[in-house]
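Exercise (ungraded).
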Amino acid sequence: MKRFSLLLLLTMSLSFGLAAEHANALTVYTAGPGSLGKKLALGFEKKTGIKVDLFQATTGKVMARLEAEADNPHADVLISASWDTARDLEKRGWLLPYESPNAAHVPAMFKTPSYVAQGISALCIVWNTRTGLPEPRDWRDLAAPAYRNQVTMPDPALSGATLDLLLGLQARLGKQADALFDHLHRNGMVVLGPNAQALNPVLQGAKSAVFGAVDYVAYGAAVSGESIKVIFPSSGTVVAPRPMMILKTSRAQNQARAFVDYVLSPQGQKIVADAWLMPARDDIASDRPLLKDLKLLPQEGAATTVMHAEVLQGFAKLFGLR
Amino acid sequence: MKTSKATLHSRSLAAVALFLALGLLVALPIGFIVLQAIFPDFNIASFAHPFASFSTTLKHADTLPLLANTLRFGAVVALASVLIGVPLGALRGLFRVPLARVWDLLFLAPFLIPPYLAALGWMLLLQPHGYLEQIVGVNLGHFLFSFQGVVAAMTLNVFPIVYFSVSRALAAVGLRLTDVARIFGAGPWRSVMRVTLPLILPAIAASALLTFTMAIEEFGIPAALGHRAGVELLVTAIEQRFSDWPIDLSGASVLSLLLAVLALTAFFLQHRLLMNRNFETHSGKPVATTPRELGVWRWPVLLAFGLIAATATLAPLFAIAATAFSRTLSGGLTIGNLTLSHFSALWVDGEGAGALTTSLSLATATALITGALGLLSAWYIVKTRIRGRTLLDALTLMPHALPGVVVGVGLILTWNQSFWPLTPYNTWAILLLAYSCLLLPYPVRYASAALRQISDNLDAAARVHGASASQVMRRIILPLTAPALISSMLIVFAIASRELVNSLLLAPSGVQTVSIYIWQQFEQGSIGDGMAMGIVTVLTSGSMLAISAHLTRRFNHAL
């Protein structure tokens, strides 16, 4: 009996002991795509020998975990898919200022003293070319009768880039944006989880188009042979830089800086470009349309004053989400 | 005298260790949920505003509809399961159904196909332009993405509980008493309604309650289908409040308590029903309960079994396999679209293989821990008279009724506190704790059943011949309970290797399990890769369950 209980205690304590965190490891929380985070982590490990513990989920889930761990923080580096979340964390004073030497090649609009873009995605319409419906040219084409019950959209509460689109449309179109979403809602658009979840029904043909998908997911699917087309709306779109930041509570700040440097190095940016994102640096080649090729929605100059919480709530209410 | 004192000492030492372990696994997380629900600022170590979040959450416009939806959902699923499970179970229990073993095997599917995987399969099969439309030209998208659709997906997953319970109960009772009624002049309808049905009513009611509990606890199906169907349930709402930004810890805890109370009530009722089930059908006289022949009815019966089995098991499996072997989703079901690339993708950058290794090692560890704890607990419950036996019994059975999402929430609330000097949070150990807590009831129940069949005389005889307690354990108890224990551990392994909601909530950075991999591929990656992993999972847990079934049969023959 004694030996049995000893064995039991031993197993339990052993599992706790082994479970202690890697002393020298760097913890990176990143929004999807998963393969990008994994490749960057592997590249960094190979170069520096520093082990990376990766937590990858949607922007919404990454931020939720960060908030839940506020008293007991674990993350060193955070990569979100929404510029707005970084602005929010900076306001709360959670970020460690750091300007990487490699950020010299990043355009000024994609960096601040405490966060810098990892890569940039653009929001687009993804259209299944086999549907037989007229090719959409602008956002509002998806509110037309031809697209009744044919449109999906990623959930802005989960997808950071879609959140940026929502905020961008609100800030730049104001009342018109409200009307647009109202029309889309009445036209039967459904809001479905993060990006791939909104894209899947369109791939199989259950739906015909995604409103406000991130372009890199769609490019990836198109390259693997799916019959879809990435369309940038004629009235202009929004780009969503993916902010990368170091948290003040990090216990591995030197390693965290080294990671940021690595992601912004030509080598790291090549990995970013391979995931079909626009590289943050302007001196890295890429096979996809870059910032200068895209028509953006008019920038009104003034910073976004709309609060994301309110916008999200209004959106969720309209589409009956929460 | 000295030896017996030492024995007593080591016995109580083991009992203390056992209580400590169970307290850690089961009682602590529940306690922290209660604390967080009562004290909204408990997570920042403040006891201010007790019960404040109860009134805010209960007054919140969503709460009542969520509760009503959950109750309605559970009730409809239970009813539908009875409607399918009772007739099939009755046929299987009373008559010689052709291919009976094959149907039993096919109806074991819910343990074989993880529910979230089945839901994704249904989606790919039934949505517009899905596989069904590609084959026969119609789609059932409207049906699938509705309340009825989610109910149907869940029912097909849980109705086998009713089927097996009814068929076993009837096989034991047989038609003997019904025949007696017939001899005394009752008509066939009357004898069934007045004799046979009352005999198996407790079994039907208990299994219906169990399906109710399972339906309101299951996370994967409502998470995959519910949103598009506009069906919001407590399970998904808890997960959302907990893991979507901005988070609401106290709201999630209050909803967790609500769900736990619902599930525990249903479970308690079911337990009571089975305890009071005291119809003496075994008088000790040997009775031959030979199943009847079906005669001409065998063909319609065969058709019914085939139809249900094909719908419940083969259809989602087909959709999963079709997606796993298709290069592109838009390419559809064509020969040219066939590929093995999704399977090789699992191994390319080591991500899929890593997830598989993690899941398999966690499942092995869970099986070992729950096996050890389960045997020890069962031994104390069945073979000793120590104080606190009832508490032990309750602690080991409770996780059976606890929703997975509630256990996950409880573990985070417990271990994500800054005052612990050492915490399993953010390491893989927290997953081990979650799985062990949820699956502990299986080994306890299997081991208790086996222990009840071992006569106390064996134990006494060994003691008379001078064996110590640990010798008795090793040389007598262990060998005799081993087959039952091992088969329960294999079930634990099969379930732990693919558990979803706790893995999503608790997995630390750097750790990915099979279920997380599949879910992430569905949400943010390639669904083909996810389904390829699904096939691998179904094969692994399928072979584990097959071995377990084989062992159980041998064990039953041996006794």
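Further reading is listed at the end of the chapter. For now, observe: Confidence is low (pLDDT under 50) at residues 280-284 of chain B. The two ends of chain B are 36 Å apart (CA to CA).
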